Amino acid sequence: MARNGSGRLWLRHIRPDFVIDAVAHLTAEDVRRVAPDATALCFDIDGTVTDYHAPAVTEAEASHLATLREAGYQIFVVSNCYGQRAREVHRLFEPYVTGVFTPEDCVDPADPKPNPRKHGKPAPDMILAATARAQIPPDHVVMVGDQLFKDVLSARRAGVRALLVPRLGPSDHNGVRYLQRPVERVLRPLLGLPAGKRSWPHTLTPVP
Ligand SMILES: [Mg+2]
């Protein structure tokens, strides 16, 4: 029993507050309905807004983020990418969102041994940087992403709510595909999350 109990406590750190089948179906009306005090949304990019390492933002993806911003939300990108890819993500998304944060953006310029990787999700640093930029408390923010162990866990650590979506597109980081996704598949039923591809809801839905 003790082992079960501690296991359940641990699961709380990766349990999202909401689910939806695709970011493209997320509307401002939905967010107002289930999270009326939210004023900022943070988006993971790879597997959430675009396919993994997509070289461009499609018209539909870009206009959807812009629509949410026009509806009054501060929109942030928080993406675990480095070097050239980080520069690409800044260039691709800055025209459409309030702010873009990659791990390199969270490095303290005074740090004598800077290591951007320690600021990547599941660390809460990028979400907290977005919250500071938005000048709002963490409980007014919702983090949107496709990974339990990066997006949801970083949201929990930052004290913001988490919206989980199934991975968008066919591509994935190999380590995530072969090590993390199988674990996610086992955990989803234990977390009360949709188990199969077709069981994700088309509208924003609280996790019971
Ligand atoms: Mg992702």
From TrEMBL:
Q: Does the keyword Flavoprotein apply?
A: no
InterPro entries given for it?
A: HAD-like_hydrolase_sf, HAD-like_sf, HAD-SF_hydro_IIIA, HAD_sf
Q: Which Pfam families match?
A: Hydrolase_like
What keywords sit in the KW lines? Hydrolase
One GO MF annotation is: phosphoglycolate phosphatase activity
What the entry lists under Gene3D superfamilies is as follows:
HAD superfamily/HAD-like (3.40.50.1000)
In this entry, which stretches build a coiled coil? none
Q: Which GO terms describe its biological process?
A: DNA repair
PANTHER family cross-referenced by the UniProt entry: PHOSPHOGLYCOLATE PHOSPHATASE
Q: What is this protein called?
A: HAD-IIIA family hydrolase
